[in-house]
Amino acid sequence: MNPLPSRARLVFPALRWRRGSFAHERAKIDAALAAGVGGFILFGGTRAAVTALTRDLRARAGRPLLIGADLERGPGQQVRGLVELPPPAALGFLDDLEATYTAGAITGAEARAARINWTFAPVCDLDNEPRNPIVQTRAFGADPARVGAHAAAWVRGCQEHGVLACVKHYPGHGRATVDSHEALPVVETAAEVLERDDLAPFAAALAAGAGSVMTAHVAYPALDPTGSAATFSPPILNRLRQGLGFQGLIVTDAFIMAGATAAQAEGPAAIAAVQAGCDVLLYPNDWAGVVRSLDALSAEVADAALGRFDAALVKWGGEAADVLDDAELSAHERFADGLGDRAVHWLRGEASLPLTPPLDVRIVDDDVGGPYSIPPRDVFHETLRAGGIRLTPGRRPGVSRVVLLYAEPRSWKGRADLGPRSLAQLARVARGAALVVLFAHPRLVAQIPGNAPVLGAWHGQALLQRAAARRVGGISAAG
User: Fold this and answer.
1) Among 200-214, 294-308, 310-324, where is mean pLDDT lowest?
2) Radius of gyration of the chain from Cα atoms?
3) What ranges in 208-298 are assigned the alpha helix state H?
4) Are 86 and 463 a contacting pair, CB within 8 Å?
5) Which residues belong to the active site?
6) Side-chain half-sphere CA neighbours of 77 within 13 A
7) What is the DSSP letter of 377?
C-alpha cells in the first residue's frame, strides 16, 4: 500500500442518506476523494444502497479507506435491513456479558458485510448525572467496573469480527449537564474522582484491545486548568497516551458540534486538535477548508498523526467483506428479539398482562420537533394487530387505554427531562390509563402522573416497540 502524502487523510466528511438516495453527495464524494481524505462517516441508507456506496467509494478511490458509522444500537441504527440491538443501558440492565459480546459480534459481522469497517461505539461514559441531556440510555450504566466490563466485551465481539471499535467519549461525558452539540460543557469534578471512576471503563476497553478512542468536546479544569476541551487538550490526551498506554487512533467527536468550535473557528480548531494528539478530524462543516488548514501543521506533528492513521488503515482498511446470508441475518434478528423481551421490565406497579382487548393506544412523543426524523411509531400498533389484538380509539366502557411515552436523548433538546408539551399531554391521558409504556430512561418514570403501572422499554426503536407489544398482548415472538 502506498498511502497518499496528503494530510487530507486525517479528515473524514459525512455522507447522509436523503430522500431515498446518496446521489446528492456525489459532488462532495468526488472532491473529497480527489483531495485524498482518509474516509467518511455514513448516516442512514438501506442495506443495498450502503453496500453499493461503500464498494463504489473504494473503487473510485483506488486505495483503502476507513468508512465509519455510529452503531451504538447495532448496524440497524443506521442501515435499514440490518439488525437493531437494544441500547447499551438495556444491555447493562441485563448484565449478561456474553450477550453484550454477541451484540458487538453481530455489529461487527453485519457492518463488515456492508463494507463499513469502523464503528463509533461502544460508549464508555457513565450514566452518573441525571441532568445529562445526551448520554442517558447510551451508557451501559453508572458503575465504572460494570460499564468497563460491558465495553470490553463489546469491543472484543466487534473487533474479533473484523471491524474497528471506537470507545467514546474520552475522558467521559457522563457528568456533563450541557450537551456538547449545543455548547462547551464544563465538568468541575476532582481529578482523583475522574481517574478512579470515569477513566476506568476506558482503561478496561483499551485493555481489551480497542483500536480507537473518540474525544469529548468537554472541558475538565481538574485535568487541564486552561479550560480546553479534551479534544484540544495536550494534558488530557497525554493521559491517554502515557497514563493508559494507548498508541492507537484518536478521533475527534464531530466538528459540526458547537463544543468543537466554542473557543475558535473550525480551521484553527482542527490544527489545535492534531497538535494536542488527535489523529482524525471527524465530520467538519467545511471539510475542504479543514484540509487546507492542515498545511499549517509542523511536519513532525502531521507525520505522527498520519503514521497512526496509516497503521490503523493497514490493520482495518482491507477490501474484503464477509457475506451475510439470510439464515445468519434471521439468527441475529431472533437474538435481538430475545434481548428485547428480556429488557422490558416493570418500573412502577404491575398490570395483569396480557391486557384484554380492545385497546386504545395513545402516543406522547417528546422526540418530535427537532431537525432529525424519528423512528416509525406504528410498530407497537402493528405488532398488536398482527397478533390478533383489536385496537379502537376513544374512551368507552370495556376499552383499556395504553399510553406510549417516547423520550430519547436527542441533540436538539438540551434537557434530560420531559418537555412542557409532553407533560401537558401526559396530564390528559396518563391518569386512568391501564398501562404506560416508557420508551426512555427509567428515571423518567418519576414524571409520569397518576398511578398507572409503567412498563420500561428503554428506547423507541422498532425492536423494543415489538418487544413491548408482545408483552402487552401476550404474543409470542416470530420464528
Assistant:
1) 310-324
2) 22
3) 234-238, 266-276, 287-293
4) yes
5) 181, 253
6) 22
7) S
Q: Is 212 left (phi over 0), alpha (psi -120 to 50) or beta?
A: beta
Residues 226-244 have pLDDT tens digits of 999 999 999 999 999 999 9
Please give the Cα distance from 405 to 427 (Å, whole number): 12
Q: Give me 392's grid cell.
A: 379502537
The ranges of the chain annotated as CATH 3.40.50 are 344-473
Measured from the Cβ of residue 262, the count of other Cβ atoms closer than 10 Å reads: 18
Task: Note whether 262 and 291 are within 8 A (CB).
Answer: no
* pLDDT tens digits, one per residue of 207-230: 999 999 999 999 999 999 999 999
Q: Which residues of 383-404 are buried (b: 16+ CB within 10 A; e: fewer)?
A: bbeebebebeeeeeeebbbbbb
In angstroms, the Cα distances linking 266 to 70, 256, 259, 277, 286 are 22, 9, 11, 17, 8
Q: Which three cell numbers stand for residue 290?
A: 479543514
What topology is assigned to 344-473 in CATH?
Answer: Rossmann fold (3.40.50)
| pLDDT of the residue at 312 | 98
Are the CB atoms for 341 and 424 separated by under 8 Å?
A: no
Please list the residue range(s) of the chain that carry CATH number 3.20.20.300: 7-316
CB 440 within 8 A of CB 386: no
Fold of 7-316: TIM Barrel (3.20.20)
Q: What percentage of the chain's residues is helix, strand, coil (to nearest 5)?
A: 40, 15, 45
Alpha-carbon gap, residue 399 to 360, rounded angstroms:
6
Show Cβ contacts of residue 357 under 8 Å, excluding neighbours closer than 6 positions. 389, 390, 391, 400, 473
